[in-house]
Design goal:
Layout lengths: L1 H12 L8 H36 L9 H11 L6 E5 L7 E3 L4 E5 H4 L4 H18 L3 H15 L4 H16 L5 H41 L5 H47 L1
Parallel strand pairs: 1-3
Antiparallel strand pairs: 2-3
Helix pairs in contact: 1-2, 2-9, 3-5, 5-8, 5-9, 6-8, 7-8, 8-9
Length: 270
């Protein structure tokens, strides 16, 4: 089994791991298996979510209001006239709330449509803005850490490249000290981003609960629609957790890659 894991890891990485310890090889193999399993599960959840989102987007909501109008009403009713409601075709932002740009973004699929999906997305994202106004402690922390959450993982590869360029072109060292240091920094940012993502999930769930309360108290949703919203939000939460688990497994695998590289280089130098 160890040799099988070794062959798979070598194929994945593209270089020999002959001198790497069996323990590291086995751990890399286990992480790859877990990544495959979680990724398949995440794909299934994404498919179910897409089907349900599309289904609810074809069902007209009981108040016959578009996503734009629902968001605008909830924001105005809570003294948030300064928050804009805009459509978004972006894969990065999608349905979202931005404290920095003072904006609620809704996908074009729900922005001008009076559907249950529009009701769900518009109310939940508007409630993030309401939590922000209320100075919710978790929301305040999320806002402060937003740059790290989104850009932490993106810094990993550039840091490795910068470290390698410094080692090869400036220091001309065979030990690749700068590469190891900057890679370690990238891993720290990656881990920090993962930890901060937990705070994001917490605020998303808080906004979901607040959306239920606001819609129910203002007679803006039937009991059936509230159940649909809960079902939709549950899938979103599962998908988010899946993404977090995948990110954590990828982080662990990257650490094992570094350890394997160090072991391989050490053996070659000896």
């Amino acid at each position: 089994m160890v040799e099988t894991f070794r062959e798979v890891a070598e194929t994945t990485l593209g270089y020999s791991l002959t001198n790497v310890s069996d323990t590291i090889i086995v751990l890399m193999g286990i992480i790859l298996i877990l990544l495959a399993v979680v990724s398949v599960f995440a794909l299934v959840v994404q498919i179910i979510l897409a089907i349900k989102y599309h289904k609810y987007n074809k069902k007209q909501n009981s108040i016959n209001m578009t996503g734009e109008n629902i968001a605008r009403k909830l924001l105005d009713d809570n003294g948030l006239e300064n928050i804009k409601v805009k459509s978004s075709g972006s894969m990065l932002f999608g349905n979202s709330y931005s404290h920095f740009f003072k904006k609620v973004r809704l996908r074009r699929l729900t922005w001008k449509k009076a559907s249950v999906s529009s009701l769900a997305m518009a109310s939940q994202k508007s409630c993030l803005a309401i939590l922000d106004k209320e100075n919710d402690p978790d929301m305040k922390t999320r806002i402060k850490l937003t740059p790290f959450i989104y850009f932490g993982p993106l810094a990993f590869i550039p840091l490795i490249i910068i470290g390698m360029l410094i080692d090869i072109l400036v220091i001309k060292s065979q030990s690749f000290t700068c590469t190891i240091v900057l890679t370690s920094l990238g891993l720290v940012l990656y881990l920090a981003s993962f930890v901060m993502s937990i705070k994001v999930l917490k605020t998303e769930i808080k906004a979901q609960k607040k959306a239920y309360e606001v819609l129910k108290n203002n007679n803006m949703a039937t009991d059936e629609e509230l159940d649909m919203l809960k079902s939709l939000f549950k899938l979103y939460n599962i998908q988010y957790v899946n993404d977090m688990v995948v990110a954590l497994l990828e982080l662990i695998y990257r650490i094992l890659e570094i350890v394997a590289s160090i072991q391989s280089n050490s053996s070659s130098n000896n």
